[in-house]
Sequence to fold (472 residues):
Amino acid sequence: MSSFFVILSRPSSPENIGLVARGMKNTGFNELRLILGTPIDPNSYITAVHAEEILDNSGVYPDISTAVADMDVVFAATARHRKNYTSLSLKQAVRKMLKFSPESRIGILFGNERTGLTSEELYHSNFLFAIPQETSQPSYNLASAVLITLFSIYSTAGANKMQAAQKKPLPRWEQEECIRLILQKLEEKKFINPGNNAHVTGMVHDLFGRMAITAKDRDLLLAIFSKGPDRNGSSQ
Amino acid sequence: MSSFFVILSRPSSPENIGLVARGMKNTGFNELRLILGTPIDPNSYITAVHAEEILDNSGVYPDISTAVADMDVVFAATARHRKNYTSLSLKQAVRKMLKFSPESRIGILFGNERTGLTSEELYHSNFLFAIPQETSQPSYNLASAVLITLFSIYSTAGANKMQAAQKKPLPRWEQEECIRLILQKLEEKKFINPGNNAHVTGMVHDLFGRMAITAKDRDLLLAIFSKGPDRNGSSQ
Fold:
């Protein structure tokens, strides 16, 4: 099975961090990353019953970009529908996760308890998924959302025991570099302009994020997108 | 679907009671019964975000016998194997629950955080079930165990009806039309030439095929790919 990394962005409750660690231990996951401006609050240990070593070994990162740089693919949990983005159901997301080749490093990203994930955080993700719920309010508690997700992976993986391996995507930072270059080309072409920037940038991230770009994909995409402007550039 | 009743026996943490209510609301369950010697601790309301009415309407019972008297069948959650008892997996239990006729009243019983269920409590149950877990310690937090159970019922029941509303890709012929237009643009740009035609055509089909292009994707892609050549075309 691939390596899974639970990534919590700006969690505000130390108690939730501990509960997440406990849920990870229950379901057999070890790698926890926290995007925090400070070290872990010692109060997190109160709820991390028998899962203290997951907190001990967790990584604290200053921002989303460094937290996902060495991931191959990132799945982001969102409670509500996000304009411009395709959202998978939890079941679809888990199925997709389990198709990546065993050496893949898969990040599962959860936002802050109150605000969820920002657009900036979504730009660093390949796929969005939502956990089905019956009512629009309340959303799942943060630790609950993590637990349901991990339990689904754990029980589905146990049920399937691996399917055919999908090609390994580029490390996340290289995917982002590729998308950045595409966006740059689109700006040069004036396809992106100040009036539509946020909108189109979101759509482009959604479209190319879903590809989980491999090395071969990148070569092709950059070749395709370089072609036009180069000709324009040389035709002056 | 049958009526489900979540029954907590002697829960010691008010916070867990509130979290259980929130998880019930998330997954569409309403009926909560508490076996307690006292009224609900008001602190339970702190964690019952947007699910206060479940606490308001919950029933408090002095003992297990009165709490289950009007149930048709009772499923009891246990973390560990119990001598003399057959234990179902969660999946088996959920399947069994969903097979009862719609007018059935099904109790799902959870024991105290520290001690679990007593033998006396098991005497009042029809079936025992255990939630799979990777390690023997820690066991699931009480609210987590309830949530995983309810989410399994909710998603299994839902899976039979609704399939996740994934964005529908275009009919296959329209996807192909879109790819054909992209290829045409790439030929106009001389990105595709007689020397690399078969190779690049294959790669482009692979790349855009994997997207399972939706109507929205097509609009974006064609806009992106039209931009360059249109400018070239009009600049003669």
Observations:
- Chain B is about 45% helix and 15% strand.
